Amino acid sequence: MTQGIRNDGATTSTLWDRTRRLAAQEILQTALRLFAQQGYDETTIAQIAREAGVSQRTLFRYFGTKEDLVAGSEEQFATLLTETVREQPVDASTWDALRAAFKAALSLHATPQEALERLRLVHNTGSLRAAYLGKRVRCQEELLPLLEARPAHSGLGKGQARAIVATAFACFDAAIATWLEGDGQGDILDLYDQGLAAVRS
Questions:
Q1: Which of 15, 58, 93, 167 has a CA 20 to 30 Å removed from the CA of 51?
Q2: Where do the DSSP E strands lie in the chain?
Q3: Which superfamily does CATH assign the domain made up of 69-201 to?
Q4: Tens of pLDDT along 118-143?
Q5: CA–CA dist 197, 39 (Å, integer)
Q6: 1-66: CATH architecture
Q7: What is the pTM of this model?
Q8: What's the Cα-to-Cα distance from 173 to each of 36, 39, 191, rounded to whole Å?
């Protein structure tokens, strides 16, 4: 993200950044409304662009694919998770590093209501759910070498490390499913902590 510098040395978003974020948010809200009204598969990019008052070309500058409107860019998702894990203190456990990554992933949603709408769509739409599962597997593989390199991982084989990552992602998915069943009540990370505690006990 491009940032400007205030006189006091702090960074602040430029007007261009803020305008771009607002435009992207308007497109996203339009898409989510149409998906809710007529279904994901039945809604076209042309409809979304027309309702949002932009060209299809402009829409694709903000969102590379129709799927990105709901699930986000795979590259953005993977980069956020890997960078978050990389930034964790060297003495942080593998579990703590992964929890921080999941927390960062949830921050991609502007509001809890938006998270509810987007995650519900992914959970209930076959094509989106299949794409998410593929994205999840690829992310796990990208995270694996970072986690293996952490001191807390010393002595574990690749199979054991892979099992830890898979367990964490499974608990995260279970937390999201429980959160959706409760219509967005509570906190996803609290549910994740409870599920992980049950597995590790």
A1: 15
A2: 3-5, 11-13
A3: Tetracycline Repressor, domain 2 (1.10.357.10)
A4: 899 999 999 899 988 888 899 999 99
A5: 36
A6: Orthogonal Bundle (1.10)
A7: 0.80
A8: 22, 23, 10
